Amino acid sequence: MQRRHLFVTALAALGFSVAASAQTAWPTQTVKIVVPTGPGSSLDLIVRLMSDKLAARWGQAVVVDNKPGAGGMLGLDVAAKATDNHTVAIGFNGPTAYAPFLYARTPYDPAKDLKAIVMTTSQANVLAINAEKVPAKNLAEFVAWAKAQGGKMNYSSLGQGSSAHLTMELFLAEAGLQAVHVPFNGSPPAAMAVAQGTADATFMVAPALLPHVQSGKVRLIAISADDKPDSLKALPSLAEGGYPKVVSLAWNGLVGPSAMSDAAVARINADVNDLLKNDANVRDVMAKNGLTIVGGSAAEFRRFIDADVARWGPVITKLGVKLN
Which of these, 24, 158, 180, 217, is most buried using a 10 Å CB contact count? Predict the structure, then answer.
């Protein structure tokens, strides 16, 4: 009896071990990362910078799928409704934290349907203007010029309800300005609109703007946080320019469906963190594009999102920004 008991116990232990191993083996198929903006955006840059490196680590292909639209909600909805345990998206402020305050209805509930995996970067938005059309060389001159336009100034953004959009709306309210919002699907076309002069100004993160700055078509005026990356240290913050309430960060990170396995979350988090901390190429490209690396645990990312909801929810309500 004792031998039989030991044999059964050993089989049970072996079965448990095999089951546990099967549960923790991830990935077992192609991994899809949805980018809710177009090619050339800062989100696209981040994902494509890491996708091949992650594929090499995981032994599975990593497919990058750009799905811009609906202020980023189109792409996030794909991740929220995924059932294959191998689909994630890179989220950002708008569709991950702000959407419930901006829209009467959303295709998913960010708090219930999305699981935080790992924060990638967090960076301030920069105020950029068309260098030929707008004569301002600093923030005070820009405000004076904008007031003289009598509400005819327009500004581009990378999408409705994005950090870029709301940062500008907050700035306009604080500065007593009026302007027309022209949203685009992603930062590259929004930056191009400023470079071409079809938009007077914009707020967004630096990557899509830098080629136009180098060509002399776009001028950077200010930055929306005191904590600046080395490549943007020369820019004054909006607080330094007399607008201390206009502080914003455009953050991003990987999220998956709420049912995504703990094993998948742990593997993605560990490998992305390792690339962010230890891969020289990743760190160098991020720095050159004005992107500040964050990383950290999934729980820390969840707390950060919740804190952003708590901060910006009342601001959005006060500004009265509502989208269809």
Answer: 158
